[in-house]
What does this fold into?
Amino acid sequence: MTISEIKGIPVSYDHIEANIPDSVINASLAGTDYAPYWLQHPDRPAALPALEGSISTDLLVVGGGYTGLWTALQAKEADPSRDVVLIDAETIAWAASGRNGGFCDASLVHGESNGDTHLPKENARLTELGAENLAGIAETIEKYNIDCDYWETGVLNVATEKHQVPWLKEEAEAHPELPFLDADEVKTYINSPLFEGGTWDKTTNTLVNPAKLAWGLRRVCLELGVRIFEHTKGEGLESSDAAITVRTGAGTINAQRVALATNVFPSLLKRHRLHTIPVYDYALMTEPLTEEQRAAIGWDENMGLADMNNRFHYSRPTIDENGGWRILWGGYDAVYHYGREVKPEYDHNEATYRKLAAHFVGTFPQLEGIKFTHAWGGAIDTCSRFFAFFDTSHNNRVAYCAGFTGLGVGASRFGGKVMLDLLSGTKTELTELEMVKKKPMPFPPEPVAWMGVKLMTNGLIKADRNEGKRGPFLKVMDAVGMGFDS
It folds into this structure.
């Protein structure tokens, strides 16, 4: 099968992967910069100095991604007199906050069905809190004039296989605000021979430039008086009656309260280390499309795009600093490496890049000949229930939050708010949520964790190839609360 034969003929990603010529993939990746596209923006701020010596503070936030930034910002908004220090081992947005697709979802529990599975009694309230949280993000962006390309254009969810169409119809029946679009209607928004139907969710998902959002939050934190130290890694945590002490490479910080926002990186509290695993996700960014190329795919609305497969693709447009209209294309593979370590060499995966390039060309054969300027990857903090969990220690003077499993762009603000409530020492609606009190099932130690992830991945592959029907292993994982269904 050639690209010309794919045009106009709905085929699966398996067919695409097997039939796109190597020469086409090689040409699309020739000259690609293997680095995160978002982090190469000219607005990237210069690094702040590292901490040297000993300091004291009311609140120390460990981690300079979204969770840490939102925690620091909300702490200063609630009490401007409170001294807040934030440290990061690298620079702000260097990790997941600067490498993701920029999908800012209202869900706090990785989707309605997953929330019903784990927290059926409070899922409706969590949906309301998620909507309030998304509105709070929009209000903060407007209040502080954060330039992050915030687009309230939603996401087009599409079926790429005929058996997925009834799923979308059921979703549309349950949610009238998501009218079902048949194949022809979907193609009027984004034209691909693969798309069999879809729904356009305009209410629960927005798009951002992820790095610019993090840098904007950084600016606001500094303006509010937060002291930020980059290239400052927290290496140990000890307590006394007087303070919680966090050691860094060149100094110490004595804090009355500590919020740990290290997410995928090892927690300073060892008891959390079995609760998350690093799963690596990868993405490509196209060169700017010509007017003819945009017309060929008809992607006129700046909406996001996601498919209905277990191993799903996510995609979205972005406008670069020169006005060029590009497409990000990511997802599908989710790679776990034996040993649950986070290593720089895992940030790149040539086999996945080639797979993504083939799937993109097969999805949009009209764009044959397009090149990818950037390819990159990064680790996702994954927990067994697929949404954030919380903990406290040292007589509630230390709070912890992690496990967003890919939805941290939006839910991290909520996570920061919960940690501040936990550190306040008083009961609030948030501290009493079952979501906050209940922990996910920990992952087993190696080699069982690696074997389990492999079995899960193989099960998802088989399900996608069998009209979504889940096999015995996935059914067991569903029964114990560790099943994944995108």
About this structure: The chain is about 35% helix and 20% strand. Confidence is low (pLDDT under 50) at residues 1-10.
